[in-house]
Amino acid sequence: MKRASRDQAREDRHFDCPEQEVFLHLWRTYDRLRALEDELFARWDLTAQQYNALRLLRSCAPGTMPTLTLASRLISRAPDITRLLDRLERRGLIGRERAAQNRRVVQVRITAEGFELLRQLDPEVRACNERQLGHLQPEELRALGTLLRAARRPHEAPESEWL
Question: CATH number for the domain including 26?
Answer without folding.
Answer: 1.10.10.10
